[in-house]
Amino acid sequence: MIIYPAIDIRGGRCVRLTEGRFDAETVFADDPAEMALKWAGMGAEFLHLVDLDGALAGEGKNVPVIERILQSVNIPVQLGGGIRNLETIEKLLALGVTRLILGSAAVKNPQLVEEACKKYPGHIAVGIDAKNGEVAIEGWGKGSGVAATELAKQMATYGVETIIYTDISRDGMLSGVNVEATAALARACGVPIIASGGVASIEDIRRVKAVEADGVQGCIIGKAIYTGAVDLKEALALAKEA
Q1: Is the pLDDT of residue 128 over 80?
Q2: Known catalytic residue: 171?
């Protein structure tokens, strides 16, 4: 299982939101590239970046910061937030991003996902952010009326190879990962899932690791490593256990 330290970027700084609310922000670092170096130095194999301004605006807003991160570390990076067309995908892959996460686009423009998967196989992931089983879009600000399970099954038919599933109600709350819903989604769609939202303690990593056989192949950790609730080195070691 892979642990993905999260670096959420807003206004050029490294922040965390609570339940995806832009009015509930904590700044953890003025330079996201420094955080990237810190997590890579502790043994992280892959980083999870989110352009929060981009998610709201529908276009990349922190590209210079993302470039700096890519130049600072030599581990793969996945990025989400405001990626809504093939031109942006091409540009970001050319910069050195390994995997791009399409969120709102998966609901509003599924054809883009299909085209991107054909053109850039292995480089496209879909982020499914849900509350009470319903997919939320546009920086989590709107409900979509689409069930998370149905969207995941649709994305599987397009050739999406990774889905990041976030339970918004738990994100930034340190209230525990919704392991049951994450494992159920993995079983339903047959696509490898990365769990996201709510990691509160090392026990959450243990619980996610326990459903690895269901298809949950990774876990994103944000607030818990910033507050010290989870020791990243310990989480990485646990994820590697047979």
Answers
A1: yes
A2: no
The single residue of 8, 53, 171, 204 carrying the catalytic annotation is 8
Strands 193-196 and 216-221 turn out to be parallel
C-alpha neighbours within 13 Å on the C-beta side of residue 238: 20
Residue 8 annotated among the catalytic residues of the structure: yes
The DSSP letter of residue 181 is H
201 to 74, 173, 237: CA distances (angstroms)? 28, 12, 14
Nearest to 42 by CA among 75, 65, 77: 75
**Contact 126/117 with Cβ under 8 angstroms?**
no
Tokens of 15: 């922040």
| pLDDT band (50, 70, 90) for residue 140 | low
The catalytic residue among 30, 51, 53, 129 is 129
Secondary structure (3-state) at 57: helix
Half-sphere exposure of 166 (CA within 13 A, CB side): 27
Largest CA distance in the chain: 42
Report the predicted TM-score, pTM, of the whole model to 2 decimal places. 0.93
